[in-house]
Amino acid sequence: MASDPYELCPCGSGTKQKWCTAREGMKQLDQAIGMIKSNQREPSLQLLDRLMSNSSEPACFRAYAATIKAQALDVYGQPDKALETAEKAAKDFPESGMPREVMADIFYANQDYAEALGIYQEALSVFPAGATKQICRTLLKIGNCHNFQGRPLAAWASWQRALLVSPDFTPALESIDEFIHQNRLLPHPARLGLALKKADEFDLFNEEVAGTWEKAAGEGEKLHVDDLIMLFDDLVSRDPANASAWYNLGLSCAWAGQNLRAMEALSKYVERETNIEAAADAWDLAEVLRMGAGAESLSDNLLYSALYQLENPEEFVQRLQQSKRLMVVATHDGHRTLHWMDKEVQTDGGAGVPIIGGPPRQLAQLNLVSGALEIVATRAESLAEVRRLFDPAMEGVVRFHAADSYPGSPTTLDSEPFLVFDDPKLPEEQRQQRTLAEVRRYFEEEWLHRPLKSLDNIAPIDAAQSSKMKGRLEGLVRFRERNFEVRGLAYNFDRLRNKLGLPIHGSGLEDEKDKTRASSDVDLSAYSASQLAALEPMKLDDDELVVAYRTAVQLDSPDVANRFADQLVRRDSASSKIDMNSVFRRLIQETLQGRLAGDLTEIIHRGREYDRRLYQARESAMFDYLEARSLLASGQKGEGTARLKNLADIHPDRLDVVASAVETLLSLGAYGDARELAEVGLSRSEENRQGDLQARFRDYVQEASARAKK
Question: Is residue 10 a part of any domain in this protein?
Answer without folding.
Answer: yes
